[in-house]
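Usage example:
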Amino acid sequence: MSVPQVELKNMTKRFGANLALNNVSLPIRSGTVHALLGENGAGKSTLVKCLVGFYHPDEGHIQVDGREHRLNSPKDADALGIGMVYQHFTLVPSMTVAQNLVVSSATLPAYINWQSELKRLARVTRKLPFHVPLDVRVSQLSAGEKQKAEIVKQLYLGRKLLILDEPTSVLTPAEADEVLGHVRSLTRTGALSAILISHKFREVRRFADDVTVLRRGASVRTGAVADLTDDALAEAMIGEPVSKMVQHAPKLPPKPNVVLSIRDLCANGDNGLPAVKDLSLEVRAGEIVGIAGVSGNGQLELVEAMMGQRDRNGTIAVSGSSFNGTRKEIARLGVYGLPQEPLKNACIDRMSLAENLALRNFDRVPLCRGIAMNYRALAEQAERLVAQFRVKAPGLNASMSALSGGNVQRAVLARELTQDVRLLVASNPTFGLDFVACEETYRRILEARNGGAAVLLISEDLDELLGLVDRLLVMSGGRIVHEVSAEGADKRVIGKYMAGMKAA
Amino acid sequence: MSSISGIEPVPPKPLVTAARLSVALPVLAVLLASAIFAAFVALYGQNPATVFGLIVQGGFGSSFAWQDTLSRAAPLVLVGLAVAIPAQAGLVIIGGEGALVLGGLAGAVATLPFAGTHALPMQFLMLVAGALIGGLWFGLAGVLRQYRGVNETISSLLLSYIGIAVFHHLTEGMLRDPASFDKPSTHPIDPSYMLPTLPGVSVHAGLAVSLLLAIAVHVVLRYTRWGFALRVVGGSARVARMIGLAVNRWIIGASVVAGGMAGIAGAIEVAAVQGTANSSLIVGYGYSGILVAFLARHQPLAIVAVALLIGGMQASASLLQRRLGLPDATMLVFQGLIFVCVLVADAIAQQLRETTRR
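Running the assembly step on the lines above writes:
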């Protein structure tokens, strides 16, 4: 019944040319909680996916109680007592908790003797410090109860090492404390070890014994939580400015006129819970305002609410007029956008490149007179934009998915930035783009700013933001929690706000 | 990559094959269905060659056959459009039958209060009444989808059954002509209001109406900003919202127009063929329209051609029955086979496209 000593040794994992894990070692002492910190894309998920047998590391191995193991599938991980609690729930909503637990067993007999199974279940759960109602349907549980049920499931399955992947991202702070508190006390009694993936410093400090910080696939800091200060952790997580060469255009003093003004904006996420809470901000002409934040803190919902893609409360005004995202308002007020993943969020795959280049002005002269489209003018415009923005494509009639990611982005830049832009909303505009396309995107955004447009730039990449913005806002939990001008920006302070350590 | 920018002239090939594929696949599907159908009639003890010969003869072999084919093609074109228009907006609406019979009912009763006036405005009134009711019926499916998240395919099919039930309820109750004994019908419309016969071809004027509407739909979808916007909405509602299109309005609007087409089909059947609304309207035109639209790949002009083909097949059914004693449902079997083969061909085409993209 003892909890094994698990150790990941020298793990390296490549995806094509991309080095996702670079010689990472992770020792998990028996009966402790080991926190894994890092920004998005730092390699946390890749590392634990190796540990549960989803990925096979290119180099390195896993040691359990000093013996080397190869995990070829999640079944092998199961045999070693390694289990994972995912960020999103994996219980069947229409079944009761008890039914969920029983059917989750890997070796289920063809005939289930429910009575004996339920008795065994009651025996197991009675010993646990926390109570989950067993005969209630999962759909009727609160998020916190569901998360507890997930953990009970892992214990019921006899797991000795639990991996918790941002388990509190869907929980209220009180629920989070309760769930993590139970995990902590279970490890204290020696029933369990746990890996806690998080980017909330508070949780790490309160519930973890050891911590390892990952940055760009490498382990940059490891040790006992008590030995490391918050500052040290933040510095390790965010790191030194890396060589993303953005030629920072000389900053011009922003013009006094406010272009974008958001007052008390509220919007719900897809799950129906508030994602943007009473948010207010202003962007002036000739100014780039950045919004930093860990993904999932309401940035996506903010952008969608602004662009008229999501229901909202509160007022959004552009140059003094209320803005609801209708076609007339967009053209009159000059509101354009650079969404992330442009192929999916800014292009119509089943329409041609030329048609995609016309999405903004297809209903205006010269592309359209009355209701009649002028496809010759549409082709001419496409030819001009393709040449001007150096879009490489198999042809003007090619479908968008025939273009490379960088060229899709160039097409979107061409379409959005050749309009009369007075407000540009860019949301992770370089996500997944190669270096050249990133550079070009930055250059075009700066050009738009220098041309007098107001720019709101939402990004999860702090280096990118600090290279571009005039003013930086930090978003956390659906609110703006921090504001700083580009000159006075301290990454460690910003990192703390991003991690929700400080509230405004 | 010698040129820095611009269009590289090298590989236009995949486009050509894609265009060819979209023509070749339905043709192949029909051929495959024909082969299976041949086996089916052979099992029935008939010579497939004779059967196919009779189909051609019964559908297209004489001026009488053409007349029958064309008058069947008229409603098929319209219900085909009723599927093809929402398809542009990314919807699969298959409830044409309900909109058709309700449109027929509305057309049958719209002119009853006005006996003995000019024929032309009354004929117009019948078609408009049919269009309005049909549009309402499809519009419901669009509203349910946009505001309640109900799948439009299922809701339109269920609404179709409700529509047929309402039709029976009214034609056998409130709106029944007491003089109709064996076949409950509405009061017959004034004979002078019946749609005239087109000169030269002796087919009712409904054919001209449906051809004109097919051309109009083709022009609107292909050459106007409305067609462009509808394709954007169908391509991605997200992007459509980003560029400021009112997605709900476009989707519900497309549904209403499509339902209007099916409703006009019903009104034409009443105003040109039946003279009253009765159960003869419920012969499955709405369902055949789904086949027509899918086989024509939702292209309005192709719909006209396919409607002629399917209309001809249906017209030949009675000949097959008389000459060979094949059951009435034979042609339904053939249509069903074609439909299955088209759907399979679509699935294969999708996979081909995805593998070539990799």
